[in-house]
Every structure is written in C-alpha cells, then in structure tokens.
Amino acid sequence: MENDPERIDYPFINCTNCGPRFTIIEGLPYDRPKTSMKSFRMCENCNSEYYEILNRRFHAQPIACNSCGPVYKYKDFGKSLSDIKQMLEEVSKQIVSGKTVAIKSLGGYHLMCDALNNNAVSDLRYKKQRDSKPFAVMFRDIPAVRKYCYLNEIEKKELQSWRRPILILKQKDILSYSVTNGLNTTGAMLPYMPVHYMLFRNLKTPAVVLTSGNISDEPIIIDDLSAEKQLMPISDSILSYNRQILNRTDDSVIRIIDKKTSIFRRSRGFVPQPVDLKYNVEGILALGAEQKNSICIGKGDQAIMSQYIGDLKNPLTYDFFNETIDRFSDLFRFKPEFVACDLHPDYFSTRHAELLEDELNIPLLRVQHHHAHIASCMAEHGLDEEVIGISLDGTGLGTDENIWGGEFMIADLKGFRRFTHFDYVPMPGGEKAIDEPWRMAFSYIYQYFGESFDYTSVPLFNSIEKKKLMLVKEMIVKKINSPMTSGAGRLFDAVSAILGFCSVATFDSEAPMRLESAIDGNTNDYYPFMTDKTIVFADTIKAILEDLPKVNFSVISAKFHNTIARVILEVSKQIRKETALNNVVLSGGVFQNKYLLEKSVYLLNFSRFKVFTNHVVPANDGGISLGQLVIASKTRR
C-alpha cells in the first residue's frame, strides 16, 4: 500500500516495470531530462526520493505525485472538469448511458464504451467507420475474463504480465454481438494504467470496449489538439492528460498457440526489446512490407524492431513510418549503411528504400517476401543453416513476377530454392478479389471444372448477380486484370466463401478468420489433394462441394484445415527424402490460425521433424523487416 498521502489515488503512479518508458523517451540514456517528464519539476518530496540511492524510487524517471506531476482533464460539449474523482464519476455516467469516451492511454488515445451495450458498440462502429472488425475488450479483472472467455493458466499468466497485451481468447459467453460480430474469439486485456483501475471502481459494467483512437486505418492519435479535433465528433467526451506522448504505440496483440506465445501485433510492452543474433547487423536498415509494417535497425549483433506502424498506403501511416525511421535513428544513434526492402517495386517501403539508396549513396537489397518470412523465424531461433521453409500467407511478389503465398522452400539466410507451391489460380480483379472472396471461389471452381460445372448448384453463386459472374468469368478467360496467385490466403478465402461464411470481406483476413471460427469439435479426416509439380486442390474443392449439402459446415472447415496440415506434412517428407533436412520453419500470416498451426506442428512432430515457429516477432508481415535485416547481413559479407 502507498503510505504517502500525495500519492493516494494519484493516476500516474507506476513501478519500474509497468511505467511509460518507451512512449515518453526522446533520447538515450533513459534519464528524466530526456523524457517528456522534464516538463514537470519535482516537488521536494519526489526530488529527495529520486536522488536517494537507498530509496526504491531512486532514478525512477517518471516519478511524480499529486503535487508536482501530470494531471488529467475532462471535457465534453458542455463542461470541463479538473478534479479526478469528478472526472471518473462523469466518465462512468457516460459509459453507463451508452456513450463513447475518448481516453488518453500510454501510447495514444483510445475510444471506450460499454462492451455489454450493443447499441453503444454499434454506434462506435459507425462513427469510427470500422465495419465488422472485432473490438478489443478491457475486463475489470480475471473473474470477469473467466465469465466471458475460456482461460487456462498459460493464458492467465500472459494476460497478467507487466506487458498487459491484448490476448485472443476463445469466447465462452457473448458480450454484445457487435464486439466480435459472430467470431468465437475475443481480444481480452486487463487494466494497465492507474486510471483504468480507478475507473472500474466506479463502473458497474465488468468490461469496456477499448479500441485505438483513430478513424478507419489511420495511426493511433497521440497529439492532444488532434485528439480534440478528430475524436470529439465521434465521442461524447474526452479524458486526457498534460504529459506528451513522444512515441505512439498501439496495444500489442498475442495468442497462445501450442502452449507458446504468438505475437500478432508487436507494440506496447514488447518494443524496443531487441532480438539477439549470432552475427553482425550493424548499420543495416530494413523497411519491411506494405501492410502491418514495421522497420528494423541493426546495432552490433542485435536487431531492434519498431512498433507496429500499419498499412503504408494510408498517407498518415506513411508519415508515421518516416517519423519512426527518424526517431529510431536518433534514439539509437543509428546511421544507415545498407538498406533492405521487399521485392515488390510498388510498395511505399520499397520506394522509400530507393530514395535512401540515392540520398545516402548506400547499397540496396530487395528481398523476396516469403524468404524474409522464413528468415525472421530462423533469426529468432538462432538458425543459420539450410531448412525446410514453409511460408503461407496471402500476397508477396515472387521471382517469376507472379503473386506467391503457398511456398515450400529449401532456404538458408543467403538464399532459397522453391521446391513446390500451391497451384496458380487467377485473381479476377486483382486486389478486388481479396475484398470479395466470392471471386476466388469462382476462380478456383472455374480453374478446375471450367464451363461444364453447374454453378447454380453452389448457393453462393445464386446470391451474386449473373452479370458480375459473367464479367469475372470473362476476366479469367481473357486474362484481363487477373494476376496469377499461389497465395494460401486466397484458397482460404475461396473455401470460406463457398461455405457462405464470407463472400465480401469488411476487414483484413475476415474470410479465413470466419472459416477457422466455424470449427467446433475435432476430426482427423481430411480431403484428397495432389502433389505433382505443384500442389493441386482440384480434388479438395470437388470433395468440399460434394459435402456442402449434407455435412455440417463446422466439419467441412475442420477437414479443410486438416487437408492443409497434411499437405505441409507430405511435402516436408518429400523434401526430407530429397535433402535429408529435418528442421521445418513455419512462417507467414496463415500460421496465425491456431487450429492449423497446432495441427501442423503435431503432425510434423509425430513424424520426427523439428519444428520452428515465430514467437518473438509476428509470423505476419509485422516480422518481415527482421527477415530482411538478417538476409542483408549475409549478402553484405
């Protein structure tokens, strides 16, 4: 208990583990004058504790109290408040009455509403322009989490860790339908700032939606004036404080898969913890991919990855990308001597790499996307030899100018050989086929069964205008804006659409997420497939269509996932037979699928393979920059 009256109910009290640190730092070493706490002159009491070597607050940089530290302020359309108790009472009233509150957290602003009030959550969705993507939920405590989610001891430990991530849990009881919109998982977290705990003292609800304070896909807002301008129109009040956030960080997102931590979004709590390597990466700057972007810098034998940045197609996110490069260069006294980027020429990160190549007169390496995925996993496990590399995701430019994503490689950190891959199919409409999975469903069926197939036998196609179907067919036949893809993500899209789970996606990876979410129970059955020069799924699609009218969709989904796991096993066996390699590296966004990854790891382990998966960095494109960095280090030698 805190005995100091100046710190009773002080909403900025923290220990050395759970404090702001990265979000308030502007230079190293981490001393108060190099943080945004320099604006707050310590009172006599705090000053004596800060400089007393035997005191537990000795050189605790964010040290402060009610007399000298940052303060909260509350504002709505009718009034302003400065007393913390009054503010929290007012915020509680707003939440209970179904309204939305903008609240300044450690790494940026959040939007908050009652997670049990469907009207409130639906209203927030509309204002935030967030369609049906799931919202994260902050629960009062562990008993509240247990009421609504299944929670084992490993998950409980991660949820309570000082990092306080969002943890994806299987749903037990529905909060409001609009929180997850039919998915069977909930992104759960616990309070991590004093103000969160103080707020739950007043709140009757055990859970609140706590989503990033931004519009659509823009970066989380950190500036107070911007927050007031942009968030007040979509919230009913704003609760902020007068300490500046210097480094924006979203909440980190993790999931426990195969009893280990898998990071989906690496940000608050995990950054800037370095990844220790066994080779020198000094001076290398890796700029990552286009979506879920992160950058990575090399210092000695350590890789320092940035926080989650986002989709660089958004202009504000691209600004954040530039800001992050500058901030990391200043913080870690880093000067780029070598730059690495993705192979895709049109990525904003690639174009930025080309600018740096010219401006700084430094070498540039373009790294194939899926090779970078494999290398990211190898780096975190200290592997520096040939491995069986299996990279499954949605999109990445291949060396043959096609879109890759179902890749089986023999790889090391210097290069790779493509052993086999998922069958190429057209993507009618290009990126439009990602937004409308029904297009991929039509493409797969047309690829394998052509004109003779009765398309009216599939309920999905009866819900699509005939004019659209004919247009898509014409695009495929005449090869108009229909790039070829081997992407595993597109196959998952197709099956999800065929089963009626998602014909039009409203957020990234919605179709595969709904397909996985449908699995209920367990079966080891799988569909037939063919591995020849490529992996052909004609028999798989045919069997799924035959099951469609008579088999529970949950079973069909499970059998499909089992099929992909079997493909992984069979091709791994083929590569082992040819090369004697036994280490299998699994990476790429598809391996965020808990069911698929656990099934694949089980089958591979049973067949005596040694399996490596991403844990320190995301398997999705958020980990690409680490892979680029280590590949560049080998090329530079």
Task: Describe the fold and architecture.
By secondary structure, this protein is α/β, with parallel strands linked by helices. It folds into 4 domains: 1-70, no CATH class; 83-241, DHBP synthase (Alpha-Beta Complex); 266-368, 2-Layer Sandwich (Nucleotidyltransferase, domain 5); 425-568, Tetracycline Repressor, domain 2. 36% of the residues lie in helices and 19% in strands. The protein is built from 21 helices and 26 strands. The strands form 5 sheets. It has an 11-stranded mixed β-sheet with strand order 2-1-9-3-4-8-5-7-6-10-11, with helices on both faces. The protein has a 6-stranded mixed β-sheet with strand order 12-15-14-13-16-17, sandwiched between helices. The protein has a 5-stranded mixed β-sheet with strand order 20-19-18-25-26, sandwiched between helices. A hairpin with a 2-residue loop joins strand 14 (296-299) and strand 15. Helix 2 packs across helix 7 (194-202), helix 11 crosses helix 21 (624-636) and helix 19 (553-579) packs across helix 20. The longest helix is centred in the C-terminal third of the chain and has 27 residues, at 553-579. It is globular. It starts with 43 loop residues before the first helix and ends with a helix. The mean pLDDT is 95.
